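Researcher: Next entry: MFS family transporter: sugar (Ostreococcus lucimarinus).
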Amino acid sequence: MAPGRRGNAHAYRFALLGGLSLGYDVALVGGILPTLERTLALSAAARGVVVASAKLGGALGAFVGAALMRSHGRGRSASAMTLACSACGSAATWASAEAGDATGMALGRVALGVGVGGVAVIAPAYCGETSEVGARGSVGACFELSVCAGMALANALTWFSPQKTLGLVLFSPAVLGFWSAIVFAMSVESPRWLFRRGDENGARDALRATGADAATVEEEIGEILAEERALGIGFDGGAGDDAGFWRSFVESTVGGVREAMSGDERRAVRLALAMAVLNQMCASTSVINYGSSVFRRLANDASASNGDMDVYNMYTGVIILCKTVGVAASIAMVDSVGRRPLLLFGSAASGFGLCVACFGYAAKSVGWTLFGLCAFILAFSSSFASVFWVLVSELFSMRAKSSAIALVTATLFASGALSDSIFPSMISTIGAGTFVVYAIVCFASTTFVYLYIPETARKPLKEIQSAMKSGLSGYAEIHASSEHEDRGTRVELAVTRDTNGG
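Model: Predicted structure:
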C-alpha cells in the first residue's frame, strides 16, 4: 500500500505503550537492588534469581499473550494482561518486601513478567498488521522507544532515597499498568484479526477508523483476502482464528516448536530465535539491571544509598539516556537506511563499546566503564534492540504469526533471564572478563547478520515471507517490486476478488 493513504497514529500509540512496563521493570529493579539486598539479605546467586524472575515470567507470558491475542483480539488481550499482572505482581512484591521474603519477591516478579511478556508478543504483531509499509519500521522501532521511556521513568524514581520509598516504588507498576490497560482497550482492533474471525464488516470499520478512504479500505481488504486464500483460509469453510483460549495456548506452544522444526516458515522462525538469543546474551538489559551495582563496586562503596541521592543510579540514568538516543536514531533510519546496515554496524560497534568497558573496569575507572557501557548501549539500541522487533513483525505470515512470535519472544525472555542470573556471579569471579565474554557475543552477531539476515525495508510482507521460505541468505537481496509491478498486483487482486465473488 502506498504510504500516506491512511494514518498510523493507532499503531504508534500501541507501540509507544507496548514496551513501557518492560522498560519500567528493568530500570526499577536495578535502582532498588541495593535496598533489596539489605532488606532481603540476598546473596549474589539470590540477587540474580530475583532480577531474572520477571523474565522467566515473560517467557510464560509470551505463550499466554499469543493465545489471548488469537482468541480475543489484540487490544483487549493487551489490556487484560497488563491490568491483571501489574496489579497482582505489584501487590505481591510489596507484601514480600514488607515481610522480608525473597521467595515471595521472586514470585511477584514472575507475575509482573507474565504481563510484560504477553504484551511483548501482542504489540509487535499489532504494529506489523496495522501500519503502512512505508512506516512499518519506524512504528515497530517505537516499541523499543517505549522501553526507554519506561526505563527513564523508573530510574528517575530511584535517584532520591530509594530505601525510604521502597513500598511506593514497588507498587508503582500497578499505576502504570492501569493507564496502559485503558489505552490498549480503546485501540482500533487489527483488521486482519477481525477478518480471520469472519467479521469482514468489522475489518472495514477498523480500517475506516484509521482514517483510510474508501479506495484504500477496498485495496487492503483485497490484499488480506488474497493472503487468506493463499493460506487456505476464508469464508468458505476454512479455519481462521476462531479457536478458544486453551486450544490457542496449546497451538501456540506446540505449534511454535513444530513450525521451528518442520513448518513452511521454519527458516524464518530459526533466524528469529537466533536473533532473540543474541539480543539478550550480550547483556543488553543486564548492564542496566546491574549498572548501579557495577559502579558501586568500582567505587568500593558498600552502602545501600542511605543519603539523599543515589549517584550510582544517576550513572545508570546516563546509560538509559544513551539508549533513548540510539532508539530515536533507529526510528529515523530504519526505513531509509534499512535493517541490515543498522544491524551490521550496531552489533560491531556494541562489541567495541564493551571492550572499552572491560578496560575501564580493569583500570578501576568509573568514568571509562561508564563511557564504554554508554557506547555499547548507544550502538546496540540503534540496531539490535529496535530492529529485532521490526523483523519479528515482518517475517511471519498470519498463519504462523501467533505461535512463531510466542516462541521467539519466550526465547528472548529466557535468554535475558539466563544473562541476568549469571551476570552477578561473573562480575564477582572474572571481573573485567565479563565484558569480554559479552563483546564476543556482539561480534558473533555481526557475522550472523551478514550471513543470514536479508534486507526487508520497504518490501511487502508477502514478498518478505516468500523470500524466507525460498531460503535467501542475508547477502542475497530481496528484490523490491517496482511501482508498476505493485499496481499490477493490486489490479490482479481486485480481479481475483471479483471473479470469486469477494
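Model: Note for the record: The radius of gyration is 22 Å.
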